């Protein structure tokens, strides 16, 4: 959060004192009012307009001793001025933001401390809304015991929570959650999205994310640490054939996947590849009959990739099995001079030194378990520190890495560039064979000439969208079948149905410090 703090300081130096907090609190109060109004449901005779729900609404503020608590107090004062019954629970009464507290008390806000056990309990039980201002970007480590206890009482009470800037207890920089943390329905964040709002496990604590512009953007660095592509960015990357295109100019992707035991992986990988915009898909391996039966447009050969004919990229790994021959096949593909995507069984025992000598791009697409094996660590460690894991992998292997999972992250070996977080996706995508579709799709985009980072990002975006567009519950086959609809959604050439399965924020501000 050093970059956020530097940007805030630079901006604060040019503005009257308190301006940024005023902007933050105004945005926070407006978001709380909207949430209360929407929770009120349809207007009734007794309650003729939606905004009427704010009047008389019971709002509890959880207030820590930093500026995060200050934001909550000022926002609470605004809500109280509009008729809400606002009560602040001060974790450290003597250190609560003095001006914010005075503002709340001036408009009739009440004040409690956690020691007022029964009053706090009945407050939380009856609250229409809880505002979490315990800690924001100043938080380190898991919540301290008194804060953790309060967070637990809120969870037990079940009222909807709006988190101020970040859900208290999540790490702003890494998205790690060490110990108890607040779970919010909505997080109102200021100036810029923090990595903790896009990366799991923290992301699931944030709920919906709403970004309030406090004028910070000009002060932020041009190259953020974490970025996410929006549909318009992806649309600009996707290949579009020109009048002169033939299949070779559009790119040919080779698939070395599947085995006698796992022919389905070959079929699914080809399915993904056929929807990635390459001009043709070659398949080399023992599952050719299965592939042809399903996709007769595939160019099939049964020998080694070497004899399969010219390709502009290879995908190797899905369904190869654990036989030693699989390793040899991976080595053969890596010896080519075209971009290579390595997935699934192909990732076993990869040699980082070998990968680093490749001149053409290499893209690795592990899930957390495979990433753990590549890093010599545990799956739990990868899942709890996904951002660090994806960076470490790409550095160590000298490859672009797409780390699949609840939040798919993509890192390039160049440490100066941002890691990309995929904003689409749905937990339903954790289904057998879905990764094979993704690797075929990304390989196809590589063949059409996209750099590995862009091919991986665009593939993850389309794949996530297809997962949301496919009928629920999706299977790998229906995800592949929904890819044209996802493509149409992204390029604006059609209207897909279904919802965008993303917790991404509504405004299009995706650069993160
Ligand atoms: N700067 C700006 O321009 C703007 C900033 N804005 C807002 O300010 C926020 C940052 O405010 P901040 O710097 O005061 O830090 P903050 O997040 O309140 O935390 C510090 C407090 O938390 C405590 N604490 C620490 N760890 C803890 C833990 N694990 N568990 C429990 N407590 C813990 C720590 O205690 P201490 O170590 O001092 O005892 C200290 O009291 C930012 O997120 C945004 O909301 C907006 O108004 C827009 C303009
Ligand atoms: K907070």
TrEMBL record:
Q: Where is this region: Disordered?
A: 491-513
Q: Which UniProt keywords apply?
A: ATP-binding, Isomerase, Lyase, Metal-binding, Multifunctional enzyme, NAD, NADP, Nucleotide-binding, Potassium
Q: What are the GO MF terms of this UniProt record?
A: ADP-dependent NAD(P)H-hydrate dehydratase activity; ATP binding; metal ion binding; NAD(P)HX epimerase activity
Q: Which reaction does it catalyse?
A: (6R)-NADHX = (6S)-NADHX; (6S)-NADHX + ADP = AMP + phosphate + NADH + H(+); (6S)-NADPHX + ADP = AMP + phosphate + NADPH + H(+); (6R)-NADPHX = (6S)-NADPHX
Query: Residue ranges of the YjeF N-terminal domain?
Result: 4-222
All copies of the YjeF C-terminal domain together span: 230-490
Task: Note the Pfam families from the entry.
Answer: Carb_kinase, YjeF_N
**InterPro entries assigned to the protein according to its UniProt record, in alphabetical order:** Carbohydrate_kinase_pred_CS (IPR017953), CARKD (IPR000631), Nnr (IPR030677), Ribokinase-like (IPR029056), YjeF_N_dom (IPR004443), YjeF_N_dom_sf (IPR036652)
Describe how the cofactor binds.
Binds 1 potassium ion per subunit.
Q: Does the keyword Repeat apply?
A: no
| Residue sites binding AMP per the record | 404-408, 435
Top-level division of the source organism's lineage: Bacteria
Q: Which HAMAP family match?
A: NADHX_dehydratase, NADHX_epimerase
Q: What does this protein do?
A: Catalyzes the dehydration of the S-form of NAD(P)HX at the expense of ADP, which is converted to AMP. Together with NAD(P)HX epimerase, which catalyzes the epimerization of the S- and R-forms, the enzyme allows the repair of both epimers of NAD(P)HX, a damaged form of NAD(P)H that is a result of enzymatic or heat-dependent hydration.
**How does the annotation summarize its subunit structure?**
Homotetramer.
Q: What protein am I looking at?
A: Bifunctional NAD(P)H-hydrate repair enzyme
* UniProt gene name: nnrD
């Amino acid at each position: 959060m050093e970059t956020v703090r530097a940007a805030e300081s630079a901006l604060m130096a040019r503005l009257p004192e308190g301006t940024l907090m005023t902007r933050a609190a105004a945005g926070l109060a407006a978001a709380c009012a909207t949430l209360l109004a929407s929770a009120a449901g349809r207007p009734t005779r007794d309650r003729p307009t939606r905004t009427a729900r704010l009047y008389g609404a019971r709002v509890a503020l959880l207030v820590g001793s930093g500026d995060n608590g200050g934001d909550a107090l000022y926002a609470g004062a605004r809500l109280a001025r509009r008729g809400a019954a606002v009560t602040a629970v001060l974790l450290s009464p003597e250190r609560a933001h003095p001006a914010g507290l005075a503002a709340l008390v001036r408009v009739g806000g009440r004040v409690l401390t956690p020691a007022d056990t029964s009053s706090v309990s009945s407050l939380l039980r009856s609250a229409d809304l809880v505002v979490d201002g315990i800690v924001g970007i100043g938080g380190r480590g898991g919540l301290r015991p008194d804060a953790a206890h309060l967070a637990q009482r809120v969870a037990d009470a079940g009222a909807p929570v709006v988190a101020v800037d970040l859900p208290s207890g999540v790490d702003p920089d890494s998205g790690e959650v060490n110990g108890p943390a607040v779970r919010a329905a909505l997080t109102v964040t200021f100036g810029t999205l923090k990595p903790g709002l896009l990366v799991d496990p923290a992301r699931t604590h944030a709920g919906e994310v709403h970004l309030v512009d406090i004028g910070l953007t000009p002060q932020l660095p041009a190259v953020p640490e974490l970025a996410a592509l929006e549909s318009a960015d992806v649309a600009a990357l996707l290949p579009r054939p020109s009048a002169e295109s033939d299949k070779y100019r559009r790119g040919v992707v080779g698939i070395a996947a599947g085995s006698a035991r796992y022919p389905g992986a070959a079929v699914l990988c080809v399915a993904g590849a056929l929807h990635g915009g390459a001009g043709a898909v070659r398949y080399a391996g023992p599952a050719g009959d299965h592939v042809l039966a399903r996709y007769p447009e595939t160019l099939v050969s049964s020998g080694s990739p070497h004899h399969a004919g010219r390709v502009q990229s290879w995908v190797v790994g899905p369904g190869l099995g654990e036989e030693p021959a699989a390793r040899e096949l991976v080595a053969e593909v890596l010896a080519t001079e075209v971009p290579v995507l390595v997935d699934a069984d192909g990732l076993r025992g990869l040699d980082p030194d070998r990968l680093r000598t490749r001149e053409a791009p290499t893209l690795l697409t592990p899930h957390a378990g495979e990433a753990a094996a590549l890093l010599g660590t545990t799956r739990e460690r990868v899942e709890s520190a996904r951002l660090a894991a994806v960076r470490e992998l790409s550095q160590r292997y000298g490859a672009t890495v797409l780390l699949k999972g609840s939040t798919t992250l993509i890192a390039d070996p160049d440490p100066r560039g941002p890691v990309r977080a995929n904003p689409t996706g749905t937990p339903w995508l954790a289904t057998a064979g879905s990764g094979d579709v993704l690797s075929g799709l990304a390989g196809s985009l590589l063949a059409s000439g996209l750099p590995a980072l862009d091919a991986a990002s665009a593939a993850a975006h389309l794949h996530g969208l297809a997962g949301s567009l496919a009928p629920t519950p999706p299977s790998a086959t229906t995800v592949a079948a929904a890819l044209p609809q996802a493509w149409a959604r992204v390029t604006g050439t059609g209207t897909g149905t279904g919802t965008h399965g993303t917790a991404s924020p509504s405004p299009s501000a995706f650069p993160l410090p």
